[in-house]
Design brief:
Blueprint (H helix, E strand, L loop, with lengths): L18 H24 L5 E2 L6 E2 L4 H4 L11 H18 L3 H14 L3 E2 L12 E7 L3 E7 L9 E7 L4 E4 L12 E3 L2 E4 L12 E10 L6 E7 L31 E4 L1 H4 L5 H4 L9 H11 L6 E10 L4 E3 L5 E4 L2 H18 L4 H6 L3 E7 L16 H11 L11 H9 L1 E6 L2 E2 L22 E3 L10 H12 L10 E3 L12 H4 L11 E6 L1 E3 L6 E4 L1 H26 L3
Helix pairs in contact: 3-14, 8-14, 12-14
Length: 561
């Protein structure tokens, strides 16, 4: 099990601790706190602070990075599903932006034995082991490579995206003039956000700021999060005004209100505040809020990349708690599951087994899928193929300056990519928009996606491959493979599957590219619904894929013994 002890409820323990056991536990907690402080400092995660409070409490990443104790819940399927649903809910509540998500996974991976490889440095030697790398703290790849691996052996990578719909604060948010005392915030939609679904929601602020250390001149990134405190609200027009149904203008009618007469009641700017590079681009009250939230002086804040995010907590729901209600399920769900599955798989390998292992397994979390993937951190950036080249370079003569094309071709043609994104669960209120017998349901299993026009890339070989993966999962977990296909009169959404097959910076010619995911309702709404078991289902399914892909391919090509 992934190192993560947050779910242990010691208050309900029936075991009476002796004095020595209590002392030992206190010692472990002190060591854990020291590790947490070091890790949080390393990644510049700042303490959460309420704007008007003097007391602070650190952002809680304890289930991600600092526990040295494993929770063994694998023996019972229900415990497994319950525990991982709780972990996922905690993860969603603490990590509202892509910056937070990637940083969380960095800490999680390091605490579970994965070594960081800087993406801008040449890898001269790579021992068998567990590794990860990032770009701009906005995308990530992590992998396990065995001592007997060769490029011809291929690889299996589970590819997801880590971005989600949000509302971006403008680089100059003061473009919106206050109206009759209302303080308005300049924002822009990210992908399909800022529509009617974002009205009447409690919105907090979260994201990244760049801060200058005036002693050293160094610029560092800090992450901030106002959760659970909302700071903005987008009010719709009341129906009493008789305007009927209409489309809100995104520039003039979906403007967040974040205060009333703040500037009139505020203390005048100090000379130091006036000298700030951000003074005039953002309201002084917003800058002071960010300063308190980040514990950084206003002049030290150079740039801000901030979102407005829904602060309603993720939670369990339904009469029997069979659902999870949350924002940003697309695609933080599959990203979470793939990383945890890789860590679970890594825990099954002893040092001796790792040395003799012939596999190369990993996860790739791309950014900006929701807006086309064309950024330097998106799936079109070639990040994964660059990693492949770096890994291959450790196996060739160091005097050679280039990776032989045939080695890269051998690796790609033997590689399997699972493009994992959420898919549309059946909505009983709109049953006519679904193709009969071609839709998934919650709490049953993953769903392979098909499209006759190749908007997704699953085929019959991929379907058979996944069937054999599911067949190997312990029966007590009761996981079944589902499938999804749209009606002929519907539009199909895209995934990074076709992007990963691109011949320019993708892995064109891969052995298999399979689009598969987990079902949710209300996709691209500010709030979505999923089955609570689907968190654990995804992890178990991906872990089994890591474990058995080589044997399944051999069996399909050569038959069973």
């Amino acid at each position: 099990m992934v190192n993560d002890d947050k779910q242990i409820d010691r208050s309900n323990s029936i075991i009476s601790l002796t004095t020595s056991e209590e002392e030992e536990e206190e010692k472990e907690e002190e060591e854990k706190e020291e590790e947490e402080i070091e890790l949080l400092d390393r990644y510049n995660l700042v303490n959460q602070i309420r704007p008007n409070d003097d007391e602070t409490s650190s952002l809680d990443y304890s289930d991600a990075e600092t526990s040295s104790n494993s929770i063994d819940i694998n023996d019972d399927a229900e415990d497994y599903y319950e525990s991982y649903s709780s972990k996922f809910i905690n993860f969603m509540n603490r990590n509202p932006t892509t910056y937070h998500v990637i940083t969380h996974f960095r800490i999680l991976l390091e605490s579970n034995g994965f070594k960081y490889l800087p993406s801008n440095k040449i890898i001269e030697k790579l021992d068998p082991g567990f590794y990860y790398t990032t770009r701009d703290d906005l995308c990530l790849a992590a992998f396990v490579v065995g001592g007997n691996w060769k490029p011809i052996n291929g690889s299996l990578f589970i590819c997801s995206h880590c971005d989600a719909l949000s509302v971006k604060i403008n680089p100059g948010s003061s473009i919106k003039k206050d109206i009759n005392g209302y303080n308005l915030l300049g924002v822009a939609p990210y992908s399909g956000s800022l529509n009617k679904l974002w009205l009447s929601r409690d919105l907090g602020i979260a994201g990244s700021i760049l801060v200058k250390d005036f002693k050293t001149g160094k610029v560092q990134r800090k992450l901030i999060n106002s959760y659970p405190e909302p700071i903005a609200f987008i009010p719709p027009i009341a129906p009493h005004f008789g305007l009927g149904e209409f489309d809100y203008n995104l520039q003039t009618q979906t403007v967040p209100i974040y205060g009333f007469n703040n500037d009139e009641n505020a203390e005048p700017p100090t000379e130091e505040e006036r000298d700030s590079i951000l003074y005039g681009r953002h309201s002084l009250q917003l800058l002071r809020y960010i300063s308190r939230l980040s514990k950084s002086s206003i002049p030290s804040i150079l740039q801000m990349d901030l979102d407005l995010v829904d602060v309603q907590p993720s939670c369990r729901g339904g009469l029997n708690k069979e659902f999870i209600y949350s924002s940003s399920l697309d695609d933080r769900l599959c990203a979470f599951d793939s990383v945890y599955a890789l860590i679970e798989f890594s825990h099954t390998l002893t040092k001796e087994q790792l040395q003799s292992y012939s596999g190369f397994n990993g996860v790739y979390l791309a950014n900006h899928e929701e807006i086309g993937s064309e950024s330097r951190t998106g799936a079109k950036s070639g990040f994964l193929v660059d990693i492949f080249k770096s890994i291959i370079s450790t196996q060739v003569n160091q005097k050679k300056k280039k990776v032989p094309n045939e080695l890269l071709a051998n690796l790609i043609k033997s590689t399997i990519l699972l493009s994992t994104d959420v898919t549309h669960a059946f909505n009983p209120n709109f049953k006519d928009v679904y193709l009969d017998n071609n839709f998934p349901l919650p709490n049953i299993g993953p769903s392979i996606k098909f499209d006759s026009n190749a908007h997704v890339l699953s085929d019959s070989l991929g379907w058979e491959f996944l069937n054999r993966v599911v067949d190997r999962i312990d029966e007590e977990f009761n996981i079944k493979l589902q499938h999804f296909h749209i009606r002929n009169d519907s539009r199909s959404g895209g995934t990074i599957g076709p992007i990963m097959s691109d011949g320019n910076r993708g892995l064109n010619g891969a052995k298999l590219i399979i689009d598969v995911g987990l079902p949710i309702l209300s996709m691209h709404s500010i709030r979505s619904i999923m089955g609570y078991k689907d968190v654990g289902i995804g992890i178990k399914f991906y872990q089994e894929t890591f474990k058995n892909w080589q044997g399944i391919i051999y069996e399909m090509e050569h038959g069973s013994d």
